[in-house]
Amino acid sequence: QVQLLESGPGLVKASQTLSLTCTVSGASITMTYYYWNWIRQPPGKGPEWMGAVGYSGSTYYKPFLKSRTSISRDTSKNQFTLQLTSVTPEDTAVYYCAAGRAWGSDVLQSYDYWGRGTQVTVSS
Description:
Elements lengths: L2 E5 L3 E3 L4 E8 L9 E7 L6 E7 L4 E3 L7 E6 L4 E6 L8 E8 L12 E2 L3 E6 L1
Parallel strand pairs: 2-11
Antiparallel strand pairs: 1-3, 3-8, 4-5, 4-9, 5-6, 7-8, 9-10, 9-11
């Protein structure tokens, strides 16, 4: 069974960098044709796709967030990470990692696998 688990600090100060890690078990992040995504959902709002890293290492980003977003992977640890710089309280959200044979969907259920999410609060 494939499991994804988000981890990282739950509280980040404004102007700092948000860093999260998704640890994958039961599958390899190099598995052919799979893409490893980050999605977030602010309180009271719908989910928002942020970006992804593909099985070959290629990255994809939402244009609105591209300048502040970096997604990378560590194949030796079977993990991929999210870094979001210059955060503001508007970045407060539940952050999810998800995997499937496509990227770019805002909807968690459109992917094959997803984590339970982790709350990140940005303080001002």
